[in-house]
What we know:
Layout: E1 3-7, H1 12-23, E2 27-32, H2 41-46, E3 51-54, H3 60-70, E4 74-77, H4 84-89, H5 91-113, E5 121-127, H6 150-169, E6 173-178, E7 181-182, H7 191-203, E8 210-212, E9 218-219, E10 222-223, H8 224-234, E11 242-245, E12 251-252, H9 253-263, E13 273-275, H10 293-299, H11 307-322
Parallel strand pairs: 1-2, 1-4, 2-3, 4-5, 5-6, 6-11, 7-10, 8-13
Antiparallel strand pairs: 9-12
Helix pairs in contact: 1-8, 3-5, 5-6, 7-9, 7-11, 9-11
Amino acid sequence: MKRALVTGISGQDGTYLAQLLLSEGYEVFGLVREPDNPALTPVKQLLGDVSFVSGDLTDVGSLLRAIESCQPSEVYNLAAVSHVAYSWQNAGLTTDVTAKGVLNILEAIRSVEGTRTGSIRFYQASSSEMFGKALTSPQNELTAFWPRSPYGVAKAFGHYITINYRESYGMHASNGILFNHESPRRRIEFVTRKIARAVARIHAGLDSGLVLGNLDARRDWGYAPDYVRAMWLMLQQPQGDDFVIASGESHSIRDFVDLAFATVGIREWNSYVSVDESFLRPADIDVLVGDASKARRVLGWVPTKSFEEIVEIMVRHEVDALGSFS
């Protein structure tokens, strides 16, 4: 039986990936700082067959112990200080976890492997935020990075250190440059989940408005379960490599809001939405759109959900949770 160790297992991608790995017959371990933390109870209930082990990306020793204990054939690093806006508030922590944490886990894998180089396959969750103020569009694996946030900078370090370890030590290490991907499991601090929940509450008469930042920012949005399948496919290849995972379509925050309100039958939503400049980032990204043709060709990966379907899935989930869908 294959074994996999997943960091960041309590997040959106971590839970979907764990479920996929279990369905593929893996024994799955989740790396968490405090396995007995009561806050993990919902995750443990969702992932009943996953074992949890103690570890911290900022502590190499704990990573060594976790890998030696689990003896994984695959390691998926999804852990990060992953909220772009928060990275401006705590750039130091973002760097320690999202950048140096990747180096720490690569070093731990290399130390455990010894002479068995390449026996543990590694996946690094890179991000479209690395492209930032991209000079060309759409962005692919050869597009130059121009990150516009501490988060994007930290992810760029993690991406390049993974390539360096692959090329220098022969590690089977892959980067997935994932563009935005959403689901009902997206955390509430992310704008898509914020919109979906607010629209549901407005529909139910529980809220009267929604406050947002830049409505004209455009992103390439996909469906999280599709994207974690791409992660798994990368580690099934003969060699490690880098892949952009994206839908190839660009939509604005305004588009998302429009479809979200339409899902509950509200066509004229301007009176419900206001813009607060305090939500604007010090350096924002106007447009990101990815070219996933390499992933389609090499991995056989294709997205299964359209932008419109993703918005509807998220809003219906929120409305159903309130018991107010008619």
